[in-house]
Amino acid sequence: MGTAARQKVLGSSVKKSVYHGIGKNAPVRRTKNAVLVLTGAALDHPGHTGRAAMASPRFAGLVMTVAADRTVVMMITTSRDGTTLAYDQLGEGPPVIVVLGVFNEREAGLPLAEALADHFTVYVYDRRGRGGSGEVAVPFRIADEVDDLKAMIEVAGGEAAVFGYSSGGLLALKALLAGARITRLALYEPPYQNENPSPADHPGHLTELVTQGRREEAVEYFQLKIIGMPPHMVEQAKNAPFWRRLEALAPSSVYDALLVTDRELPDQLAGLRPPPTLVLDGAASPDRLRGMVGALGTAVDGAHVVALDGQTHTIDPEVTGPIVRAFLAG
Q: Which InterPro entries match (predicted)?
C-alpha cells in the first residue's frame, strides 16, 4: 500500500448486504442493521489525515452499505494531480479493482466486491467528483481519470485485475492503452461505439450545463441524449428520491460523456495486445446496447464474450459474481 493511503475502519460483522445490483439510477435498499451512516462529525477520527479533502457537502451524511460479515476498510490515496480518491477494501487474495459507471458511487460496487472477496482483495473506489473523492478538474480530461485508475493499481501493489462496469469498462480500456498494468480485464456491458459517434458535442454541452450550475438539466441531458432513456422514464425519475443524488453527481458525468464519445478508441484498440479479457452481456438488455457489447468483443483481440440469460444492464452479483470469479482465477 502506498504511503499516501490512510486507513479508516468503518464497520464489521453485520448480518446482510442490502444493495442488490449496480444500475444507473437504481435506488439502494437498506436495512437498519446493515448500514453505517457517516456524518461530517465522523470524519473527525483521530489520525485521519485525509479529513480536509473529504469534508465536503457530497460526503457529509453519506450512507454506506457494509458487506456481510466482513470488515470494510475505507482508505484515501492521491492521484497524480493531487486529487484524493476514496476507496473501500475487502477480502484477501490477488488484487481486483472495480471501476463503476456514470452516476455510481463506490457503495454500489460492494455487493459484487463481496461476491469476490473470498478469493480476492477487492478495491472499490469513488471516481473523481463522487462520494468521498475529490472534486472534478476543469477542463475535463480522460487522462485524469486514467491517472486515477493507475493510482489505484499502485495501491494494489503495482498490478491488478480490473472489473469495469458500463462506462467504467471504457475507462479501464483507456488505462490499459496508457500502460496501466492490468493482469486480467472483465467488462460488463461497456457502451462502446465503433462507428462515428453522434456529431453532437455531448461533453461540451454537459460542461456548459454543470459549470453554470444547471445540474438537473445536465442529468436530464445525459439520460435522454447519451443513454437514450424515453422521456417519460426521465420524468418519472425526477420524482424519485434518488434524483437529487444524481444532480450532486452531475459534474462527474462529463467524464463518462467523454468516454462514450471517444473517437480515438476504435483505432487504438486495433493495435492493442490485451491481457485475458472477458466481456459480459445481459441477454435481456436493449438491442442497441447489446450491439455495442458485441462490437467491443470483436474489437478487443482474443476477448471472450458471454451472454447472461435473463440479465440486464443492472448487475445481479449472484449471477455475475461466480462467472467473474472463475475468470479472474484463470
A: AB_hydrolase, AB_hydrolase_1, AB_hydrolase_fold
Q: Is the residue at 252 inside a domain? A: no
Residues 6+ apart with CB under 8 A from 159: 95, 153, 181, 182, 183
State how far Cα 162 lies from the chain centre.
11
Domain assignment of residue 243, yes or no: no
Domains held by the chain: number: 1
Read off the pLDDT of residues 94-125 as tens digits, 9 standing for 90 and up: 999 999 999 999 999 999 999 999 999 999 99
Q: Is residue 190 part of a domain?
A: yes
Compute how many other C-beta atoms are within 10 angstroms of the C-beta atom of residue 23.
Answer: 18
Distance CA 102, CA 221 (A): 13
Contact 20, 111 (CB under 8 A): yes
Alpha-carbon span 180 to 158, nearest angstrom: 9
Distance from chain centroid for Cα 207: 20
Give me the percent of the chain exceeding a pLDDT of 70.
77
Range(s) of the domain holding residue 56: 6-195+260-329
Strand partners, 124: 88, 98
Threshold 0.85, pTM exceeds = no
- For cell 461505439, the residue is 193
Question: What residues contact 252, with CB distance under 8 A and at least 6 apart?
Answer: 102, 127, 128, 129, 130, 136
Is residue 133 one of the residues assigned to a domain? yes
Nearest partner of 229 among 128, 330, 313, judged by Cα: 313
At 17, which CATH number?
3.40.50.1820
- B/e letters for 195-234, b = 16+ CB within 10 Å, e = fewer, are eeeeeeebbebbbebbeeebbebbbbbbbeebbebeeeeb
210 CB contacts (<8 Å, ≥6 apart)?
218, 250, 251, 253, 254
